[in-house]
Design goal:
Elements: E1 6-12, E2 32-33, E3 37-38, H1 40-49, E4 54-59, H2 64-73, E5 83-88, H3 101-106, H4 109-115, E6 119-124, E7 127-129, H5 133-143, E8 147-155, E9 163-167, E10 174-179, E11 193-204, H6 205-216, H7 225-235, E12 239-243, E13 260-262, H8 266-274, E14 303-305, E15 307-308, E16 311-312, E17 314-316, E18 319-320, E19 325-327, E20 330-332, E21 335-336, E22 341-342, E23 347-349, E24 352-353, E25 358-359, E26 364-366, E27 368-370, E28 375-376, E29 381-382, H9 386-392, E30 394-395, E31 401-403
Parallel strand pairs: 1-4, 1-6, 4-5, 8-12, 14-19, 17-20, 18-21, 19-22, 20-23, 21-24, 22-25, 23-26, 24-27, 25-28, 26-29, 27-31
Antiparallel strand pairs: 2-3, 6-11, 7-13, 8-11, 9-10, 9-11, 15-16, 30-31
Amino acid sequence: MARPEVLSMVLAGGEGKRLLPLTADRAKPAVPFGGMYRLIDFVLSNLANAGYLKIVVLTQYKSHSLDRHVSWTWRMSTLLGNYVTPVPAQQRLGPRWFAGSADAILQNLNLIEDERPDHVVVFGADHIYRMDPRQMVDQHLDSGAGVTIAAIRQPLALADQFGVIETGPDGVSVSAFREKPTDATGLSDAPDQIYASMGNYVFDTKVLIDIVKQDSLDPSSKHDVGGDLIPKLVRAGCAQVYDFADNRVPGSTDRDRGYWRDVGTLDAFYEAHMDLISVHPIFNLYNREWPIYTGHAPLPPAKFVFNEEGRRGYATDSMISPGVILSGGTAERSVLSPAVHLDVGAAVCDSVLMDGVRVGRGAVVRHAIIDKNVIVPDGAEIGVDMARDKERFTVTPSGVRVIEKNQIIPG
């Protein structure tokens, strides 16, 4: 039996205000992650590994670096009609930008009409996870649902932090979809858990077209996929849930299977990096059977130089990218992105340094996220004096210092 035709739409238009200052000059899906990647590389890799190779990326806010990354990195052979293409807001329905994720789909219905797919996969662009979407599509086909919603199990006590999916007696049909409820009930097979929406959906094409057109005429709607389209389809009785715990990705281990992180806050972004650097990482970037793809600049291998007391370049429990030079500096429990340079005596600990950061002689960096091309001068201290750091930088509730890109920090 022939596989159905599937078009993938990646929603990448969010502002990412809670990630400021990392999103001061870029869209949230373009934020660097894990040394080598951008956030959007994870969803695109999942789709590409599954063989879904007709992908449109709907962009809007501060999208230049995102558009450039997708266009440069995600080139595919057009011989078989494959493509990954950024689609900026085009004001196709008048002089207005996208009013929400559902409106973004409405304004790009021409993409669906051009491809005429049987089903449309609509995924978010800024989560860290591995998933084989074919398994979700297979359940969707078997069920005959109008929409299938991917869900991850979370503790009942955290229900007020998620969009919660409530199911009927069969455990699969969706009876309600509520945003951050305070009175959620547990699952029938796990009373201490709830289904939290992952922001990933599979739609029957006709159902999607009909519902976005219907929603566009609703003056009370915020035109959001999760907030408006899904509740309407739940009320129509055509929504089902897909349990992410059932997804099996080639090469995954018991430790990293089912990992999913919404890095919507600076603390979550930092914690997701810390998940990468343990001896047996909670999220394993080294799974070659389901790789995470990205573009690679022509940089040389990382280099560790000097081996003298007080002048020794080394890194422990860390991830080190190409082009990094530890010139007598040290890194512990940190992620160093391409072309980072640590000078003699520099000490970086529990931190994330993005591309091109330079840490001067004797400088100390602790518990920090430092964006691209920042210069930390000789002898400077970050993460040592909380009161002083709050005067100079963004500091998260957990105490992570965050420095905006291209800054030259006073000594």
